[in-house]
């Protein structure tokens, strides 16, 4: 069973492709971000995002600074675009690229972009699944090891929780890719960056895309691993 040390090692081996990809993606993001942060831009991240939003008629969307590094996000409920300290006031290719990506999410929201609508609906299920999935698996597995059949439904509920997370990640991929594509097009269309800066913007956004791919792969592999464990496909007795 996965509760054993042998089972834990098998889990790590099974997840190795996703973990290695995630490590590489994070390294790539840090490297490309650091390089792009040294390339000057005529606008700050906040100013670039404001220009993009206003040009799309989204004057109602506020832009706020938020603490931390790479904590940038768009809040569709509050209609607020929050930019991290290194992006909000920074005049660099990295800052405008990330700010434009988040502005792309605001445009998706305003246009009712279908994958974003579905993703927003799926957020509660994904949050619940990530919080309760492992707990149900451990409780269910422990009950089965003590010969209590009622543990089986708990295990499948736990796997269902992880499946919700995997489904959310799969839905999230087109949302993030589309936001990056919008950012690249808008930065050029509005003349915010030139060809040289655009090379660095592309590097940052493309590297960030790999983090979403890694998270999706990890979620899918997690579901497959536990399904195999509890359907007899891989046993660690």
TrEMBL record:
InterPro entries: Zn_peptidase_2 (IPR007395). Keywords: Membrane, Transmembrane, Transmembrane helix. Pfam families: Zn_peptidase_2 (PF04298). The chain crosses the membrane at residues 121-142, 154-171, 207-227. It comes from the Bacteria. The keyword Transmembrane applies. This is Neutral zinc metallopeptidase. It comes from Lacipirellula limnantheis.
